[in-house]
Design goal:
The protein is built from 29 helices and 31 strands. The chain is α/β, with parallel strands linked by helices. The strands form 6 sheets. The protein has a 9-stranded mixed β-sheet, sandwiched between helices. The protein has an 8-stranded mixed β-sheet with strand order 24-23-22-21-20-29-30-31, sandwiched between helices. A 6-stranded parallel β-sheet has the order 16-15-14-17-18-19, sandwiched between helices. The two termini are 37 Å apart. One of its GO terms (cellular component) is cytosol.
Length: 796
């Protein structure tokens, strides 16, 4: 299920309340459990997604899959979400390498510094990282631009005059908050991660992230409809900025094909890329954006198996006694103008007026979940709806029969599922809806297939659930006729329809949705159009390399040591790593007899001396700042370190303020490591460090390089590429092999002549000609240049 429109990672419709029990009077009491955990996908789900996740995953949504609330006593309660998005992505969040970033559900104004730190530390235990927002930011970014401008326009509804008058202020807040999310992403992740951004509140974020990290794998999924081009372009100021924001992603996902088509129309109308409709992609100047539809599903097993739950059976028993054999028509929605609540109540009123035989035999149960109660349009909608419900009950009600049972509240899952099981008809008729998961939840909750779904043609679910009774919310008579048809449908027919739709829902559940999106993101980022021309070094390619190497008169092997050792440090013990380094040392020693070999690293001179000081090779430390030529003992320095004391005093100060962090002093660079610090302190002080050091860096011509939980300060203009160009300038080579893995290596790949063999280690977008996936494969490749034995494929 997607984020609900309050932004929480619960059901799209928010029909049960996370971590709460709601009584009949609508007042909320906290549940006894305070456990903070995510649902498991089960063994099937974990296996299916585990093989697909090639890099660490950063999930970014407006809200975290938890809510933080402050009790009157001042105690902070953290409630886990039991809903869709958290469930669908639960196996990812269990991996310590993955992170979920979002607002924790409470304004920062209500929290002290210590409380913010406490929340951050608690959430970090479960791989969740908060973006703290003030009440003013929430008013203008969330209630303002997101929900008073984007939400109505994307649902083909008018924007209020009040919102239109404040449009500029709202837009500024929208951009600012998107940038706050960006800062947290950059602080908490490295360039080797994939980022999955969710929903309309964060449409600027993909482009912001692409600008900061050109090689990042970025996916975006929109959980609401995407409007037709004429509506989007005509009514949405800054629409081109939003589209440009989405085009920062490698993959843009929608619920259904019609939304995808609308997006391509808008891109074409703005002239922002070459649209390939056959392959549903957009070709930009330097890369490609894949566009696809991913109909979101539900946690099918949870709803289907709930009928066996004694608590659900107890609720169902009470409901059957309450409604005394009458046929139940059920509507379940958040309070929202897009849901068509008044239209449905009016259709029911007409049904009773035109069909007296139904009076006393049916009941409309309207479950309306409170939503955005601070927005005037929502307050007015509630007044209109409740007035109409009162009118119907006064006009047609009797001593023994109330035509409409209206509930304005959330329900616990057990009662909601019992309602689904009880209902003879689900009356799901939004004016416009991205998907509408209530329709799917209703069908999944009916093990005996004894119910009829009446569904709006303007709900995304209608493109999947074609066996529903499809109605047009713009024509009130179709709603009435749809109800009549549903109430009179023979059991054989409605069971056939329900069975067909239930099979569809089961096969495309929330777990498959998440798996399919991640798989598509990997394919999009590894595509040839995005600078990834191969997926591996084949047997044939390895043989060609060997042949070219042997026929060359002069050869150069340029190896990034960090790319082969870093993955091993994460997964292997010290003894295995030492063995690996010893074998690499042996191979390079033999290779250097007739080949120029360069070993480059971001580490210090002493580290390279320790590992490879005995070899007759070129050693390059600190990304090109220091160089030791073959046969020499002395290192050459290309930059002065006079600046270090002036920067170091500031870094040491912030290290003291950030327990767990430390400063590494290299010969000509400084690195602030904060991977072991509190995420809250690290994020806060990282921004302050940049603010303080940037003016000094400009004076001393220094670069600030954001890494994975690190900030490195080093001289400008000196890098691996500088070393490479000097080598080529000093010598003429017939064969060049360059092996690397990070963002700096990509510029290095681009600097070499086309005939050079550039090799990327690992997954992700690359400009390299070839690719291997594991450090061991680098050793295997080097052996091919030394051994006279058979050539084997480097990777399967």
């Amino acid at each position: 299920m997607p984020l609900d429109r309050n932004g929480s990672a619960a059901t799209e419709n928010g029909v049960y309340q996370n971590g709460h029990t709601v009584h009949e009077n609508g007042h909320t009491t906290h549940s006894n459990t305070q456990d903070f955990r995510f649902h498991s996908l089960g063994e099937r789900g974990i296996k299916s997604v585990g093989s697909l996740l090639e890099q660490s995953l950063i999930i970014v949504s407006n809200r975290l899959p938890v809510s933080v609330k402050k009790a009157e006593s001042g105690k902070l309660d953290i409630y886990p979400s039991v809903g869709g998005l958290a469930t669908g992505l639960s196996s990812y969040t269990k991996n310590a390498e993955n992170k979920w970033i979002g607002w924790p559900g409470i304004p920062s104004n209500d929290l002290s510094e210590e409380e913010r730190r406490h929340i951050s530390d608690e959430l970090q235990k479960y791989n969740c990282y908060p973006v703290f927002l003030s009440q003013d930011q929430l008013n203008d970014f969330y209630n303002g631009y997101s929900n008073s401008i984007l939400w109505p326009l994307f649902h083909d509804l008018p924007v209020t005059q009040e919102a239109d008058d404040l449009r500029d202020r709202y837009w500024n807040a929208y951009q600012q908050v998107n940038h706050l999310f960006l800062e947290v992403i950059l602080a908490l992740s490295g360039t080797d991660s994939s980022v999955w951004v969710h929903d309309y509140q964060l449409m600027m974020l993909p482009a912001m992230l692409r600008s900061a990290r050109p090689l990042e794998n970025i996916g975006f999924f929109l959980h609401i409809p995407f409007p037709a081009a004429e509506n989007f372009a005509t009514n949405l100021k800054w629409g081109s900025d939003l589209v440009a924001g989405l085009l920062g992603a490698d993959l843009v996902g929608f619920h259904v094909q019609s939304y995808l088509t609308n997006f391509l129309d808008v891109v074409e109308q703005y002239g922002m890329g070459s649209v390939d409709r056959e392959n549903t992609r957009i070709n930009l100047v330097d890369r490609m954006v894949q566009v696809a539809d991913f109909p979101i599903g539900i946690d099918y097993k949870r709803y289907f198996q709930a009928s066996k739950d004694p608590a659900v059976q107890h609720e169902l028993f009470k409901l059957r006694n309450k409604y005394q054999g009458r046929k139940v028509i059920l509507t379940v929605d958040r309070l929202d103008p897009s849901k068509g609540l008044v239209e449905r109540a009016a259709a029911y009123q007409t049904l009773l007026k035109d069909n007296p035989s139904f009076r006393g035999k049916i009941v409309l149960v309207m479950l309306v979940v409170p939503s955005r109660t601070e927005i005037e349009a929502y307050k007015n909608l509630k007044i209109r709806l409740e007035a109409l419900v009162g009118e119907i009950n006064r006009e047609y009600g009797t001593k023994n029969w109330i035509p409409v049972h209206y509930m304005y509240k959330s329900l616990p899952f057990e009662r909601l599922n019992a309602l689904y099981q009880l209902a003879d008809v689900a009356f799901i008729v939004p004016l416009r809806d991205g998907m509408n998961l209530v329709a799917k939840e209703y069908l999944a909750s009916k093990p005996n297939k004894d119910g009829v779904l009446v569904l709006s043609k303007t709900a995304g679910a209608a493109e999947e659930l074609s066996d529903a009774v499809i109605v047009d919310p713009a024509r009130s008579e179709t709603l009435v006729n749809g109800l009549v048809k549903a109430l009179r449908m023979p059991p054989q027919e409605f069971r056939r329809r329900a069975d067909s739709m239930r099979k569809q829902i089961e096969s495309s559940d929330i777990h498959n949705w998440a798996t399919n999106f991640i798989s598509a993101l990997n394919l999009a980022s590894d595509s040839p159009e995005n600078g990834s021309p191969t997926v591996g070094l084949t047997k044939r390619q390895a043989a060609k390399l060997r042949s070219r190497f042997e026929s060359a008169k002069s050869q150069l092997v340029f190896l990034d040591y960090d790319c082969v050792i870093s993955p091993l440090i994460q997964i292997q013990d010290a003894e295995s790593i030492d063995k690996f380094v010893a074998e690499l040392n042996s191979l390079l020693k033999e290779l250097s007899v007739s080949t120029d070999v360069v070993v480059v690293t971001g580490q210090t001179q002493s580290t390279l001396e320790e590992k490879f000081g005995n070899l007759d090779v070129t050693l390059v430390a600190e990304h090109g700042i220091f160089e030791r030529l073959p046969g020499k003992k002395k290192w050459r320095s290309f930059r002065s370190a006079d600046w270090q004391p002036k920067i170091l005093v500031h870094l040491n100060k912030f290290a003291e303020l950030t327990p767990g962090s430390e400063v590494e002093t290299k010969d000509c660079s400084l690195v602030w490591h904060y991977e072991n610090a509190s995420a809250y302190d690290a994020q806060k002080h990282l921004l302050e460090i940049k603010r303080v050091i940037t003016p000094l860096a400009n004076v001393w011509k220094l670069d600030l390089i954001q890494g994975n939980m690190t900030l490195e300060i080093r001289p400008k203009g000196r890098c691996k590429g500088s070393t490479a160009k000097e080598l080529v300038g000093r010598n003429s080579y017939d064969f060049v092999l360059v092996v690397g893995d990070d963002q700096e290596d990509e510029s290095l790949f681009a600097d070499w002549p086309d005939e050079a063999y550039t090799v990327k280690v690992g997954h992700g977008r690359t400009g390299a000609r070839l690719r291997v996936f594991r450090p061991e494969e680098v050793l295997s490749l080097l052996r091919k240049f030394i051994s006279s034995g058979n050539i084997f494929a480097v990777s399967a």
